[in-house]
């Protein structure tokens, strides 16, 4: 079984690849690194690409990926790492590749060579998360250990959340503590929210891999009623709690879209500080 790692050869992508390689070493997976090129990324003009398309060995992308993977392999000599280049746009071609191979998950960064949107990364990460046929692990642009003791499960009491937890346990195959994270609306009874979380927690406790469950709750922010402030609240909760990775189901569309897109009114971007595991599209 393999972890699929897309790259644009940036340092941010290399950080994500290191996380994936460390995860592969811990949990006995192999890696497959893939780069999707266009005339721009391969270093050739479009007309040159058409003329020399069959001579793929001449593409700069072929040379670059060999060196890039070699650098990764040197750091993880015990991990089997394969690679190839393919032509196409990331958000389209990666999903097709994910359906082809024996992949357990996609591991990728939040942004590539630039924090700004470009044809490879940025907002495309959210598109891949939304449509991927396999789970996606999104890694922030910082070096993070893959040692996982405690996961944060974003919950709004939906069945899909349990499915996401099951997918995580199936891939990581280890015992974990689970923090149930719920952001409630202003005016809701805290006692009622806690009681509901207690009841919902019984479903999580039934997982044999779950050692212990805790609750983390907070109200939505008050300063901007026109914005969905749940992502900002969750971000702050995760920063102060001892959580190693957050689990997000596809029911939380607003949350993962806001992870990668700007809020115009606040002129800010919610920056992911912990890895996030997104369940596959069912």
From TrEMBL:
- CDD domains for this protein: USP-like
* Entries under Gene3D superfamilies matching the protein: 3.40.50.12370
| Domain (UspA) ranges | 2-140
Q: Which InterPro entries does the UniProt record give?
A: UspA
Q: Which domain of life is it from?
A: Bacteria
The record's Pfam families line, in alphabetical order, gives: Usp
Family membership, please give it: Belongs to the universal stress protein A family.
Q: What is the protein named?
A: UspA domain-containing protein
From what organism does this protein derive? Sphingobacterium haloxyli
């Amino acid at each position: 079984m393999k972890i699929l790692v897309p790259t644009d050869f940036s340092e941010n992508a290399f950080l994500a690849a290191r996380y994936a390689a460390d995860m592969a070493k811990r949990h006995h997976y192999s890696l497959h690194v893939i780069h999707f090129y266009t005339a721009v990324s391969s270093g050739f003009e479009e007309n040159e690409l058409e003329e020399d398309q069959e001579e793929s060995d001449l593409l700069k992308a072929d040379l670059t990926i060999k060196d890039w993977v070699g650098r990764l392999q040197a750091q993880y000599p015990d991990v089997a790492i394969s690679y190839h280049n393919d032509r196409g746009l990331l958000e389209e071609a990666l999903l097709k590749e994910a359906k082809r191979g024996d992949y357990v998950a996609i591991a990728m960064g939040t942004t590539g060579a630039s924090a700004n949107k470009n044809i490879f990364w940025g907002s495309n990460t959210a598109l891949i998360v939304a449509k991927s046929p396999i789970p996606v692990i999104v890694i922030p642009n910082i070096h993070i250990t893959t040692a996982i003791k405690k996961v944060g499960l974003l919950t709004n009491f939906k069945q899909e959340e349990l499915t996401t937890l099951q997918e995580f346990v199936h891939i990581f195959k280890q015992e974990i503590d689970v923090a149930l994270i719920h952001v409630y609306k202003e005016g809701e009874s805290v006692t009622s929210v806690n009681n509901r979380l207690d009841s919902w927690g019984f479903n999580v406790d039934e997982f044999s891999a779950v050692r212990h469950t805790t609750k983390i709750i907070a109200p939505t922010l008050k300063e901007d009623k026109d914005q969905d402030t749940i992502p900002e609240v969750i971000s702050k909760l995760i920063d102060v709690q001892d959580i190693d990775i957050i689990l997000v189901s596809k029911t939380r569309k607003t949350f993962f879209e806001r992870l990668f897109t700007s809020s115009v009114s606040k002129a800010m971007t919610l920056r992911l500080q912990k890895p996030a595991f997104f369940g596959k599209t069912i």
